[in-house]
Fold:
Amino acid sequence: MEKYLKNLPPEIKNLIVLAGEVSREIKMPAYLVGGFPRDLILGAKDWDLDITVEGNGIKFAENLAKKLNVSLVRHERFGTATLIINHCLKVDIATTRKEVYPSCACLPVVSPGTLKEDLFRRDFTINAMAVNLTAGAARKLIDVFCGKDDLAAGKIRILHDLSFKDDPTRILRAIRFKQRYNFKIEPKTLCLLKAAVKSGLLDKVHPHRMRDELVSMLKEKDPSAQLKQLYDLGGLSFISNSLKPDRQVYVLFRSISKEISWFMRSFPFHGSFEVWLVYFAALLRQLSLVQSKRIIRRLGLSKQEEKKILSCRQINQRFIRRLESKQIRPAQVFNLLKPFSYEAIILLRSISRDSVSKKHIADFLNIYNSVRLSISGDDLYRLGVLPGPKYQKILNKVFAARLNGSVKNRQDELALIGKIVK
Ligand code: CTP
Structure:
């Protein structure tokens, strides 16, 4: 494994060395598992670390957190912990365990297990490899299920025949990894996947787990291809029988991808922006308000997410036509767009084909949205205006004038309120 590990960024190499030292000090063998060995071999650059420990994962995490001087989040119920190294790097630490599924699609009964049992409970061979971390021991790939061969052959393969029955979210995961790496689902796995879809196993998944998988899918590089694969292989009836994406939806998804790239490039310091939410809102546009609300509630989306998704329904042709007008003034553009989240604005730019409206949206984000008045209620008070709803009205007028360019600085603003007050 050394040839793969040596190309890692220094921060990750250091982390691995320190984790190895902790493993030796507290005498608990530890391994890198899950997506990390897979992406290491593939040369992908996604470095979130998953460590599994033979012994006590939480104790290991406490020791490593101390060594790294970082904070630790314990998930006592699951016997796991997460170290937050920085905003783009985290380490998940667990104890090796085995899982037994008492019935289809329900949560497994978990008990301590060996490394081999821990690997066997996983979804696909390519995700069931481990790299030994313990300092002093050779850093070898532990590959009981021939995951490396499947990586080389580009194959997604489950570990046992009941895999999709145990955990039907693996249906979505198989499609996601297939599409992400341009792999093939191995024939027997594909056959079992189709049978699992046909028997309605996806309907049995807990809504929150379904939400997480859908979100992961929509965060992938090409959500249009992801959606098409999912629809072709599994259909979307597990979300709603009425969801039947047509060519227009895929075209819209591709347009959203372009607009999101533009947004990320142009506004790298934007506030919170949920990429997946734009796609999800676009998908639900096909449905009625009642149907959309039902899905949003069933998947357990937050109130904030619900508000953003439902606000996207106001983006209709009439709204778009108003924004396409060359005559519309900056203050009108501001008033039209201000109520919307960034996600809704990006969806709007993706739906609109017209360069005028795209320019209006860019100006809103670039200019209008950051305009601030230099005057305030204090200036009105000094002019003898008694506090009340009038203040907001006057300030709004001045703000509109500022956006439209008829006032440019504090002096102009003061002159204008003087005129209005008179
Ligand atoms: N896993 C599993 N079955 C699931 C979810 C996860 O077996 N339903 C196991 C897999 O071994 C997986 C690991 O847990 O590799 C970590 O899961 P996750 O972080 O969801 O996925 P990654 O493989 O790391 O993929 P990604 O690159 O999308 O983060």
